[in-house]
User: Fold these one by one.
Assistant:
Number 1:
Amino acid sequence: MKGFQTRNTSLERTEFVGNSPFDRYLLGGDQTAMSEEAIRGLELYRDPEKGNCEVCHTINEEKGYALFSDDKFHILGVGAEIDGTLSDIGRFEISQAEEDQGAFKTPHPRNIADSAPYMHDGHLKTLKEVLDFYNGPGNSNDFRDEKIKELDHPTAQERADLIVFMEALTGEHPAKVGSPSEDEPEATEPAEASADGSSP
Ligand code: HEC
């Protein structure tokens, strides 16, 4: 079952990358590909004084493609309890370095609108909850990455713009494949039938 899901995910990545409204707008130069809201959201996303999202979810416009990840580990406070104790130690498990406690690798937000729930533990159910997480104090943690800007009292409009922008990261679905959520088997019922026909 696991193998099946992994294969599915990589299929999704290779087929989808490159044709989202965002790609057509920023990399393809099509000014009409994104809505006004999404364009404002992109500005917030890149603005070091505002969202500052791009420092980790990098765009690399000059290279002509956008990977949306710096491929590094960061501490966001995911996996930390209110009192600061960690329910999930992240990279520390492997590195045993103190500064890696609660650090997770930056995922790319492509097709993000279709891939809820969010964060490695899936505890955030919507993109709105993700923004609430970034904007609020989050779960404080001595090592929390300083690059996380708490959008200073973002207006409802600013939040909405950022969400519309993230929705513009969704590429067209290949004709024969449904949305990832439809595609993934709900229940992981292994086929009861003896697949190898090896009954005595
Ligand atoms: C300091 C680096 C850093 C900054 C700044 C940052 N992120 Fe993240 N982001 C991460 C990491 C690391 C994760 C994964 C955390 C986890 O899995 O627990 C993540 C997860 C996410 C996810 C969920 C992805 C998924 O597949 O579950 C979204 C959406 C997201 N970030 C959007 C944003 C937005 C929008 C901003 C700006 C407001 C932002 N990020 C700023 C590092 C960062």
Note: The radius of gyration is 19 Å.
Number 2:
Amino acid sequence: MFYNIDCIEGAKKYLENASVDLIVTDPPYGIGGDLLHKHYNRNEKFVLEGYIEVPQPEYPDFSVNWIKEAERVLKPGGSIYVVSGYTNLIHILNALAQTTLKEVNHLIWKYNFGVYTKKKYISSHYHILYYVKPGAEPVFNTFSRYSDAEKNETVGGSLNYQDREDVWVINREYKPGQIKNKNELPTQLLSKIIQYSSREGDLVCDFFLGSFSTAKVAIGLNRQAGGFEKSTIAFEHQIKEMEQVVPGNLLNTLRQPPQNKYFNQGKPLCEAEKKEIIEQHKALKLKGFSKKAIIAQLGDTTGRGPWSLAKIIDQEVLETSKQ
Ligand SMILES: C[S@@+](CC[C@H](N)C(=O)[O-])C[C@H]1O[C@@H](n2cnc3c(N)ncnc32)[C@H](O)[C@@H]1O
């Protein structure tokens, strides 16, 4: 559900404790409307009016208050991603530090066309603070976008590794001639976060909906969506657009990674499976295979990763040597 209300008030009124799986949000940056225009859109004619800023002196308390609510409504194991410029980053970090939320990554989002400056470097990145609420295993779908075996044909290396590096180069979307919010987050960025940190059916919430970009992508990926926007102008414009969003409409735009070679990686290992691995290892050793070849073969048949297979084998060799 979406509410045209201040997010702190709205969360208190409408969201129960531990009811949200994922929060993806982009609070007002407290840097003044004019600068935001320069940041986000050169043709002001197409920028939606009604963006509500937070006065700089209020920013620290404001951050503490909404982040406390975010912590309360997240389920244990739930994740939160907060997009922040550098101007008020310190206040967001201080507010996060006053909660039980645990930092997972401090991501950098590098975008195209920063604010042009002559006498200093050009600012062309944002911070994305990825935290989780302790108490349960967080969702992190490691192989949802790239399997572990896919190689980057252009520069070499693993695509999965490269996709999970903590600097993301993602361009803003240009929508010439279309009305947009001052800071519209790109679909590619939101999709990446939602794919890694939630499952279909999960509730994804945005405390500062703006153009409802998070909600549109979440619904497009078959998640439920909710959130708050204080500006009535922005809310009324966007809520009409939301009616056009078809659940799951983005699913067929996602690349389908081939199945992870180690399809049982990370799953709990039972005694029977361990015994079977040890038996197979013994049989292959008797046939004269090297340890490396045995691990490769067992990886194919059991779907277990090389590291866990080596651990089982080494433990067995150690125990046999003691007998
Ligand atoms: C940086 S923008 C969010 C942009 C959004 N992520 C998008 O992609 O369009 C911040 C939004 O928060 C709204 N806002 C400001 N103070 C708010 C508050 N206390 N509660 C809810 N929304 C608020 C602003 O009007 C603005 O639309």
Note: The first helix runs from residue 7 to 14.
